[in-house]
Amino acid sequence: MSNLFNFEAYSATITNFVMVYGMRLVVAVITLLVGLWVINWLNRLVYNLMVKKDVDVSLRPFLKSVLAVAMRVLLIILVIAQLGVEMTSFIAILGSAGLAIGLALQGSLANFAGGVLILTIKPFRVGDYIEAQGQGGTVDMINIFNTVLKTPDNKTIFIPNGPLANSVVVNYTIEKTRRVELKFVVSVNNDIGKVRQILQGLIKADERVLPEPEPAIVVTDFAEHALTLSVRVWANKENFWPLSWDLNEKAKAAFEQEGIQMPVPRREMVGSTAGGQVPKAV
């Protein structure tokens, strides 16, 4: 009889618990599912509006991520409220947990602040080619915590925003024009005027070379057997590498056609072996 009484008491307790909290749990689950769907829908809507309003490409993924995180936090608070948890106590607990998490994730917070700083100062944008933190590549995306680079050989590099915002960044794309500098080493036996004339002809024949600033051909090094001439011309940034490659190739062909001599290392006899002296290039 006692066992039966206990069973009935337990059943009544469980039934009462289900009646009180079961409906709240169902409502909370439905709220969570619907809320996640609404958040995804709003994220897509906001992103499409940013595209339509031509918002800076660098800002789009960052703002989308921040909005998604903020809405998910609000959704979690709403779901917990549906379960009947006292919000005053929950907010106090959340504040304490937030402080502890903040201390544990100082690096992540620094990266978040770095992302905000990058998007505010804008040392680079999506599509720019940069070098920073010993890495180089085209900026593919600026996220909340990191910046994504794509290298010319299609590698993906993730650089934390904190160190990136506080380091030296070389931006190769921000200016419309760049200076191309090529060095040609020839023998000192050549007529320097003839070599200069050949290079000037190549420069004038290439339409990608800008007239201003004026191209320059200068002697930058003079050794016993070699002479180094530096060709400095300006071009639009998109023509930097094609122009560099073409001028190198055309100069090689022109030097061969005009009989321009290349420097030959001089050899002297040093030391000795059983068979005689050993030549050494100098």
From TrEMBL:
<feature type="domain" description="Mechanosensitive ion channel transmembrane helices 2/3">
    <location>
        <begin position="73"/>
        <end position="106"/>
    </location>
</feature>
<keyword id="KW-0812">Transmembrane</keyword>
<dbReference type="InterPro" id="IPR045275">
    <property type="entry name" value="MscS_archaea/bacteria_type"/>
</dbReference>
<keyword id="KW-1133">Transmembrane helix</keyword>
<feature type="transmembrane region" description="Helical">
    <location>
        <begin position="62"/>
        <end position="84"/>
    </location>
</feature>
<dbReference type="InterPro" id="IPR011066">
    <property type="entry name" value="MscS_channel_C_sf"/>
</dbReference>
<dbReference type="InterPro" id="IPR006686">
    <property type="entry name" value="MscS_channel_CS"/>
</dbReference>
<dbReference type="InterPro" id="IPR011014">
    <property type="entry name" value="MscS_channel_TM-2"/>
</dbReference>
<keyword id="KW-1003">Cell membrane</keyword>
<keyword id="KW-0472">Membrane</keyword>
<feature type="transmembrane region" description="Helical">
    <location>
        <begin position="90"/>
        <end position="119"/>
    </location>
</feature>
<dbReference type="InterPro" id="IPR049278">
    <property type="entry name" value="MS_channel_C"/>
</dbReference>
<comment type="similarity">
    <text>Belongs to the MscS (TC 1.A.23) family.</text>
</comment>
<protein>
    <submittedName>
        <fullName>Mechanosensitive ion channel protein MscS</fullName>
    </submittedName>
</protein>
<dbReference type="Pfam" id="PF21082">
    <property type="entry name" value="MS_channel_3rd"/>
</dbReference>
<feature type="domain" description="Mechanosensitive ion channel MscS C-terminal">
    <location>
        <begin position="180"/>
        <end position="262"/>
    </location>
</feature>
<dbReference type="Pfam" id="PF21088">
    <property type="entry name" value="MS_channel_1st"/>
</dbReference>
<dbReference type="InterPro" id="IPR023408">
    <property type="entry name" value="MscS_beta-dom_sf"/>
</dbReference>
<dbReference type="Pfam" id="PF05552">
    <property type="entry name" value="MS_channel_1st_1"/>
</dbReference>
<dbReference type="Pfam" id="PF00924">
    <property type="entry name" value="MS_channel_2nd"/>
</dbReference>
<dbReference type="InterPro" id="IPR006685">
    <property type="entry name" value="MscS_channel_2nd"/>
</dbReference>
<feature type="transmembrane region" description="Helical">
    <location>
        <begin position="20"/>
        <end position="42"/>
    </location>
</feature>
<dbReference type="InterPro" id="IPR008910">
    <property type="entry name" value="MSC_TM_helix"/>
</dbReference>
<dbReference type="InterPro" id="IPR010920">
    <property type="entry name" value="LSM_dom_sf"/>
</dbReference>
<dbReference type="InterPro" id="IPR049142">
    <property type="entry name" value="MS_channel_1st"/>
</dbReference>
<feature type="domain" description="Mechanosensitive ion channel MscS">
    <location>
        <begin position="108"/>
        <end position="173"/>
    </location>
</feature>
